[in-house]
Amino acid sequence: MPRITNINDFKKAKSEKRPISMVTCYDYQMARIIAETEIDCILVGDSVGMAFAGYSNTIPVTLEQMIYHVEIVRRGAPNVFLIADLPFMSYHVSIEDTLRNCGNIMKKTGANAVKLEGGRDFVPVVEALVKASIPVVGHLGLTPQSIHKLGGYTVQGRDEQKRKVMIEDAKMLEEAGAFLLVLEMVPEQLAAEITSMLTIPTIGIGAGRYCDGQVLVITDLLGMDESFNPKFLKKYANLHSVVKSALSQYHHEVVSRIFPEEKNVFK
Ligand code: KIV
User: Fold this and answer.
1) Taking CA 155 as the corner, what is the angle to CA 151 and CA 158, rounded to the nearest 5 degrees?
2) Ligand 1 contact via 205 beta carbon (within 6 Å)
3) Residue 149 is part of a domain; what is its CATH number?
4) Domain range holding 34?
5) What's the rounded Cα separation, in Å, for the pair 260 and 258?
6) Do the Cβ atoms of 41 and 83 come closer than 8 Å?
C-alpha cells in the first residue's frame, strides 16, 4: 500500500493488516527528512512543549504555539498526512470555543486532522468536530494533559475498573466519529483487546506489539536525550553523541585555526 494520503487510507491499512508508522515532528528540517521517507503520517504533538521547548509537561503549550509548529511542519512535508494536537484547554471550554480553535488550526496550518486526549467526556466535542468536517484522532491511556490528575507518567488501565472504562471509552470515541485512536502506556493485552474490538486503527506508544500502528516522539527515537530511556522506547540513532562530537570538533578546529580551510574561503 502506498503512503497514507487521507482518512480512508487508515481503515484500509487496518483491513489489510498493514501496520501504520507515525512520528512526531516540530520543525521544518526534520519534516523535510520525514517527507523523504515512507513514514505514513506526522503528529505535531503537544509534546513539542517538552521535546522542543523544555517545559516539564505539556500543560503550558498554547494554541498559537501549536499553529506555529504545525504550519512549519506542513511547509517541510507538504504531502504527508499531518495531525495537529490540540493543546490543553483548547477543547475543554465549550463546543463553540473548540470549533473556533480547530477552525483556526485547519485554516492556518494545512493539517489534515486534529487529536484530542480523553474519553467519554469528550464525545460531544468529537461529534461536533466531525460534523464540521474536521477529522479527529482520539487518545486514551496515559493522557499527559491530565498529568496533575493522574499523578505521574505511568501505565494506565491495569486494574479491572480502569480497564473496563478504557474499553468503553474507545468504543464511544469510535462511535462519535474518531477515525484513529492513540493508546499511550497501556498494557499490551488491553491494547490488543481494544485494537481487535474497533474498526478504526489504534496507534500505540508504550502499548505493545498488537496495535495497528506505532508512534514515537522524534527526539526520543533519534536518541537526542541520553537520560530518557523508558522501557517502551527504541532509539534508532544516538544523535546526542553525534551532535555533541560534531560541536566539540567544530570548537576544537576553530580555536586551533583548522577551520576555515583554504577551500572554505572566497578569493
Ligand atoms: O504529544 C504527543 O507527541 C503525543 C504522542 C506521544 C502520541 O500525544
Assistant:
1) 105
2) yes
3) 3.20.20.60
4) 7-237
5) 6
6) yes
- In the chain, the number of structural domains is 1
Pocket lining: 45 vs ligand 1, CB cutoff 6 Å: yes
182 CB near ligand 1 (under 6 Å): yes
Residue pLDDT, tens place only, 244-267: 999 999 999 999 999 999 999 999
Centre of ligand 1 to C-alpha 196, Å, is 22
Q: Judge if the beta carbon of residue 61 lies within 6 A of ligand 1.
A: no
65 lies in some domain: yes
3-state secondary structure 31-65: HHHHHCCCCCEEEECCCHHHHCCCCCCCCCCCHHH
Q: How many angstroms is it from 208 CA to the middle of ligand 1?
A: 16
Q: Could you give the residue numbers annotated as active site? A: 184
Tens of pLDDT, residue by residue over 65-119, are 999 999 999 999 999 999 999 999 999 999 999 999 999 999 999 999 999 999 9
- Confidence class for position 203, pLDDT limits 50, 70, 90: very high
Nearest CA to ligand 1 atom 2: 45
Domain assignment present for 171 = yes
Taken in order 34, 38, 39, 41, is the CA torsion positive or negative? positive
Whether 63 is covered by a domain: the verdict is yes
* pTM, to two decimals: 0.97
Question: For the segment 31-77, what is each residue's pLDDT rounded down to a tens digit?
Answer: 999 999 999 999 999 999 999 999 999 999 999 999 999 999 999 99
261 lies in some domain: no
